[in-house]
Structure formats: structure tokens, C-alpha cells
Amino acid sequence: MYRPERVSAPGDKPQVVKLGKHFEILCNRGMVRAYRTYIHAEEDEHLRGTVAPVSIEDVVMTEDIYRQNSDLEHVSEDNLSLVMPDIAPSDRIHHILMHGEFSLTTAERREVIKVVRSDIERFLHRYYVSTDNRRPIPIIRIQNALDEMRFKPDLHRSIPRQVTDLLDDFIQKVHVQRMNMDIAVRVPTTKMGQVPRVFSDFSCEVQKENWGSKHYTAVLSIVPGVFEEFSAAMERATEHNFDILVNGDGNPQEEEEQGGRRNGKKRRRKR
Questions:
Q1: Which DSSP symbol is given to 7?
Q2: Is the pTM of this model over 0.90?
Q3: Would you state the torsion angle of the CA atoms of residues 9, 3, 126, 191, taken in this order, to the nearest 10 degrees?
Q4: In angstroms, what CA-CA distances link 107 with 42, 114, 147, 209, 227?
Q5: In angstroms, rounded to a whole number, what is the distance separating the alpha carbons of residues 134 and 154?
């Protein structure tokens, strides 16, 4: 599951989020952007469930809304109702978090730019594949493409929204498509003890499966960016006794007859 990086730890100087001139809330640094990323991912049917949950309690230091936090002057209920007449009282903090602005020092801005840029690179690597070979895009290739575009991250917008906005220019450099990657796996039935847990840990969707007398075979759908981690976990779970075919229409039964292939090339079966 995708987890945006934190810029600083709890206990640091509060980050003030302002809505207009007079509404302020105090937040833990680095968490406002993480909250927005989570909310926007949940609003996208293709990304729902892919970003680690972030609650309002994770973000705010207090649920008080101030006119000026330096003086701890609270906003009156009448003013809140006047400025946000259509927002339920329970949703006001959420509204400010999603639409407010927050300032950064020069050093903080420089640090956050690096973090946001890294988050965008990891997001592209994790959820997009090359249209040429249907494999995850290497990070270095993503970095080079963003450099050629002279891409500048937006510190106030969520990662999914920024990725959506940059795609038109990005695909001119790298041909990508957002999709899950289908893989075919074959495991000896005697080595299947820990395999279901690996499938669960990596949120694999089993498209089809077959239990044979000697081997278990299945076609799985996984997030592209976790393929190498998934392979390493399978190696540990099966003690290197498994085969993988990376192919959108891969068939594990065909793989068994061919003696084990990966990316369409014959390979030595792991023992």
C-alpha cells in the first residue's frame, strides 16, 4: 500500500493551515499533504484502497478553529456558519484541510519539494506500466522524463491529482498506461504453505487457479510496482521452488508444458 513520506515527526512546530484571512487550524507537519493524497485516492475508483489511510486525528493537533492561532483566539460559531453555510459543523476541519493554504520556510520548502517529487516518482513506478512490455517503469527513466519536462511539483496538491495532470506531457517521453499487471505462477503443492499469505500481503487478485496433483497454478493481478518485492517474497515462501510468467494473457498450464518461461524467454526453473 502506498504511503506518502513524512517530512518531519510529530512534536515539531505546528503547521498552520489557513482558509481565507481568519480561519486557522494547527496541524502536524507533513500530514496535510498526506491527508489530501489519501482523500483524492479514495475519490478515484481506480486508486481506492491503494493509499494508506490518514485520519483527521492524524493531521490536526487540536480540532479548534482559530481566528489567530498566535493569540489562541477562537472563531465564533456565527462567523463559521456565515462563511461556511453549506458545510456541516463536523465537516469544517476536513473542508479547511482540503482547501486551505499553509506556508513553509525556505528550508522546509526545499525539503518538501524533494519529498513530493520522490512521491510522484514512486507513484508512477508503482501504478503505471510501459505499454511496450507491460512492466513497471524504472525509477531512473521516470526521473529523466520529469527532468526533461522541467516538472515542478505543487506542494499543496495531492500526488494522484499531480500525476493525472502531468500524464499528457509524460507520455510523450515514456509510453505508459495505468493498469494492474497479470502474472502466471506455478508452485509445487508441497510448497504452498506460506503462498496464500504472500498473495494477501500484496493484495493479489486471483483471476483463475488450478490445483493439480503436483503443482498449484494461477493467474494473478498485482500492482506493477510491487513485482520485484512479490517475487522476493515468493522465493522465501517457496524456498525458490516457483515459476513466473509475466504476460497479460499468460496461462500457467502452458508455462508448465514449456518448462518455465519469464517474459517470454526460457529460464532455469528455481529449485
A1: S
A2: no
A3: 120
A4: 31, 11, 22, 53, 36
A5: 29
pLDDT in tens, 151-187: 999 877 778 788 888 988 999 999 988 777 789 999 9
What type of residue is 107? A
Query: Which residues, including other chains, have CB under 8 Å from residue 187's CB and lie 6 or more apart?
Result: 195, 215, 216, 217, 234, 238, 241, 242, 243
Q: How far apart are CA 232 and CA 7, in angstroms?
A: 29
Count CB atoms within 10 A of the CB of residue 31.
23
Which tens digit of pLDDT belongs to each residue from 34-71?
888 888 888 877 677 778 889 999 999 888 898 876 66
Chain CA centroid to CA 249, Å: 26
- Say which residue the cell 520556510 belongs to: 105
The set of cell numbers assigned to 218 is 494461477
